[in-house]
Amino acid sequence: MSPGPAYRSFGTSWIEAPLPPVPPGEPASWLLLTDEHPVALGRAVALALALAEAGDEALSLPQDDLGELAAFVAERRVRGVVFLTGAPHAYHDPEDAQDLLLSVLSVVARLGPGVRLHLVTQSSGEPGLVFLRGLVRALAFDRPGLRASLVDCDARSEVEVLVRELRSDAPDDEVRWRHDVRYAARLTRVPLAGGVPAGPGAYAITGGFGVLGQATARRLADGGATRIVLCGRHGGPVALPGVDVVAVTGDIAEPGVAERLVAAATADGLRLRGIVHTPGSRWRAKVLGACRLHEATADTPPDWWLLYSSSAALFGAPGRTAAATADAWLDAFAAWRRSRGLPATTVNWGPWTADPLLDPMTLTEGLEALPAVLASGLPSVGIARLDTARVAARYPELTRRPFFSALLGEPEPPDSDPAIPRRPVNHA
Ligand SMILES: NC(=O)c1ccc[n+]([C@@H]2O[C@H](COP(=O)([O-])OP(=O)(O)OC[C@H]3O[C@@H](n4cnc5c(N)ncnc54)[C@H](OP(=O)(O)O)[C@@H]3O)[C@@H](O)[C@H]2O)c1
């Protein structure tokens, strides 16, 4: 048993959070930036007009002059930088989503403290836009002075609500406007219960030769799996008692590998019961690999699909922007699939080793939670050991972030009341 608080389950919930009144003050200057998608440019023009109507000034800076950003912001006394994105379909391809991330990061790199960064999307649930929340969470640690926020509007929200959002300067950093009603994200505990072992059938694991992939394969074998297909770029022989173990060697992000994985799992008419996607820590393998699996299973969706994400996407983490954003894409992808009636669940795993934010868990502890995670019916569940008192002492500024404030202000529940059942369970 690891020392420290019990591991628990976490998630994000959205609460109605009306804006506070706009504080009185001088007219402000806002710098509006876009990634040059025509829809984004149109939104910037509409916002500029609405800001002018409210008495503020909207500024623009051509893409070629981005090198002058810091000086421009200081000279023009810009209160906030607003980055507006285009239509959701423009970011559906993972490469386009990654380009967007790089564009935003190049703005972040040039901004000094004292100016707030607002990312404005109209995502319609598109993972290639929703994943920007992972960047906001990472920036809360790495660039707290930016007070980065993500504001997602629906098509029915008027541009005036965005003007009020900017001018009121509310501390929420993940905001959704739906039919002109404002919601803000809060980190919450998620009670989990129940769950059933895997049972006979076929299972496929990408990253199946890695640490988590192997540990998950053992759980599935203990639970009665008939066949387990392991995928990695460099596979080796693996034996699991009583299980038909098949290796599919290849890069899951390359065309055809996911199809081979599915074909190997369903050979001899076996039913594909579950998929675990855990191929290392890079954007391409995670994100493009998930897209390939999505396409390869279009006609034969599995009963369940687990995607291993990280607590970096849910809580943020210092110095882990790459993991937070790729994993936030997986989280958003799971929600996107569910909105289409397809199975998908991400697990935002906390760390297994020493970490500045969270206490480490053992692999055994973490994997115990899988049946309950799947039974929850939620798109994403965080499993981590969060010592709220330690985190609040180490990162006091987090307690002022509404996203964290409720949880970090809460006493740790007693260990006798675990969020996750402790009876021996095999796996999902
Ligand atoms: N370990 C942790 O503390 C931790 C915590 C939270 C979340 N996670 C998440 O859990 C996942 C796995 O972690 P891990 O510790 O098991 O990592 P790992 O031991 O490095 O295993 C990753 C496996 O993925 C395979 N892989 C990499 N790229 C691939 C590709 N393009 N196609 C197919 N297979 C590929 C690798 O094998 P090849 O190189 O041979 O392909 C490797 O066997 C990661 O997504 C990580 O973000 C881990």
TrEMBL record:
Residues 406-428 are annotated as: Disordered. Pfam families: KR (PF08659). One of its GO terms (molecular function) is fatty acid synthase activity. Residues 201-355 form the Ketoreductase domain. Keywords: Phosphopantetheine, Phosphoprotein. One of its GO terms (biological process) is DIM/DIP cell wall layer assembly. GO terms for cellular component: cytoplasm; plasma membrane. The keyword Phosphoprotein applies. SMART domains: PKS_KR. This is KR domain-containing protein. It comes from Amycolatopsis australiensis. The lineage of its organism: Bacteria, Bacillati, Actinomycetota, Actinomycetes, Pseudonocardiales.
